[in-house]
Amino acid sequence: LGRILDPLGRPLDGLSNPNTTHSRPVESRSPPIMARAYVQRPLHTGNTIVDTLLPVGRGQRQLIIGDAGTGKTAIALDAVINQKPADVRCIYVLIGQRRSAVQEVITQLRKTGAIANTTVIVAEASALPGLQYLAPYTGCAIAEAWMNDGHDTLIVYDDLGQHALAYRELSLLFR
């Protein structure tokens, strides 16, 4: 928690390597639908309109779609910032973003103190396609480890469109 890493777990925040007690595969099978628990508790995003009109439950997947500049990142960032008092561990995965956009997100997390309960995984636009491809899997592996330890987690993937482009590029390279 409180760290900024690349998809391989290397620190990007100038600190030493993260202390880890175990490892897990980056790709693992999802549990079958029947084995999943029902959504019973709310996850408050901090946005009154979203929480009222489209309540999100813990354990639920939610997709934020819209054109560029419509505030998708702002809504996701508000949701992460609002989890600090709720004791929800957050992972913010930045895929294919410009360095300035990455800095804006990290600055906002630090300014609000939300970085303390957040791990940021960064694969900038200048990163190799393989790293951009791995970024969401790395975030998910960390969240699954926390979930297996009994913690509630929130993962934000920003931007899966860039992940799709990296996946396509790798697919074309490997035929």
Structural summary, described in words:
The protein has 175 residues and is of the alpha/beta class. The chain has helices spanning 48-53, 72-81, 99-112, 129-148, 160-174; strands at residues 4-5, 42-43, 56-57, 89-95, 118-123, 153-158. A four-stranded parallel beta sheet has the order 1-5-4-6, sandwiched between helices. Helix 4 (129-148) packs across helix 5 (160-174). The radius of gyration is 16 Å and the shape is globular. It starts with a strand and ends with a helix.
Strands, total number: 6
Helix content: 25-40%
Sequence of strands across the biggest β-sheet: 1-5-4-6
Instruction: Name the shape in a single word.
Output: globular
User: What structural class is derived from the secondary structure elements?
Assistant: alpha/beta
Task: Give the amount of beta strand, in percent.
Answer: 5-15%
